[in-house]
Specification:
Blueprint (H helix, E strand, L loop, with lengths): L24 H6 L6 H21 L6 H25 L1 H4 L17 H19 L4 H8 L2 H10 L6 H9 L2 H10 L4 H22 L3 H7 L4 H5 L3 H22 L4 H19 L6 H9 L1 H21 L1
Helix pairs in contact: 2-3, 2-9, 2-10, 2-16, 3-5, 3-7, 6-9, 7-8, 8-10, 9-10, 10-13, 10-15, 13-14, 14-16
């Protein structure tokens, strides 16, 4: 198990993970620390929710302690989810060009070691969750059944990205409930919009594996939409933008929030207009650009909260 293997195809080039001690590198890869876009995407709904809650509560800024916890929780739980996914998918991963050198199918980490690593990450996630109020803890625990079933969905349905959206957007509940100890229309609409956004960006991501998935029978929205991917993405991203704007309206947001959502919609439109589904590097670039989309929307929320607190 001393061989760390080659970096994964979609890893960030020359990432600091590759400079870690050799025995640690496979576990860092298992948690996808060399592909940080995943935890950004998991974190953004929670940060957006915290931003909306700050506006609704009349706070000048989203709670910094909550933001830090959401970031740490996203890193830990994204790593846990990927580890669990790799345990379940180890036989499929061995048949796909992009994933065959992941730590488990590549032989750098055994299944037993992966389970132990998963348990450690879950402990970190639990410690983060316990910092919040009781209602938020219970809501957070509600995501576990969705996380458990997600890896199996690509075997039984053409919309596994929908289930991914259910899991990856769960933070939309937490940022709001951490402030109010309850839910309401704003976080529910934010959650619905986040699901559409997730289906969109993960469809782009899934086009990297379209050919291999077709051969081994893995189902995805990339295969389902096929030549209609571009119009499907327009509808998904437009729906997400409308739902985000409606959530903002229920939270009492002002023009900076709506400006951020509008600018974000332009960015999403750029993804679709310039997308070439057969260009794997281009798909990866546009998928990763959703980190920037998150900053655009959060920036609008941050400016809005600050202005409303002053005026």
């Amino acid at each position: 198990m001393s061989d760390t293997g080659a970096p994964l195809q979609d890893s960030v080039r020359d990432h600091w993970v590759e400079r870690l001690p050799a025995p640690v590198v496979p576990y860092a890869r298992l948690a996808r620390l060399d592909r940080p876009i995943g935890w950004w995407l998991l974190m953004w709904p929670a940060w957006w929710s915290a931003g909306l809650a700050a506006i609704a509560a009349g706070l000048p800024v989203a709670n910094p302690w909550h933001l830090a916890l959401f970031m740490l929780g996203a890193i830990a739980m994204r790593g846990a989810g990927c580890t669990y996914n790799d345990i379940v998918d180890r036989d499929l991963d061995a048949q796909v060009t992009r994933t065959r050198n992941r730590p488990i199918p590549g032989g750098q980490v055994s299944v037993r070691q992966a389970w132990a690593f998963l348990a450690a990450l879950l402990v970190v996630g639990a410690l983060v969750l316990l910092q919040f109020n009781t209602f938020t803890i219970l809501v957070g625990l509600g995501s576990l059944p969705v996380i458990l079933i997600y890896p199996f969905m690509k075997r039984v349905m053409d919309l596994p990205q929908f289930v991914l959206g259910l899991a990856f957007t769960w933070g939309a509940f937490l940022g709001w409930s951490a402030i109010f100890g309850a839910l309401g229309p704003a976080p529910l609409l934010l959650y619905a919009g986040g699901i559409l956004w997730t289906i969109g960006y993960d469809t782009i991501y899934a086009h990297q594996d379209h050919d291999d998935d077709s051969i081994i029978g893995v189902r995805s929205t990339a295969r389902l939409f096929g030549d209609h991917t571009r119009p499907a993405l327009y509808l998904l991203y437009a729906g997400a933008s409308v739902l985000f704007a409606t959530a903002a309206w229920f939270a009492g947001a002002g023009w900076p929030t709506f400006a951020g959502i509008a600018l974000g919609a332009v960015h999403l439109g750029w993804q679709v207009v310039t997308l070439d589904p057969v260009d794997t590097e281009g798909c990866l670039t546009r998928f990763r650009s959703n980190r920037d989309y998150g900053w655009i929307v959060f920036g609008g929320l941050t400016v809005d909260a600050a202005l409303q607190a002053v005026l």
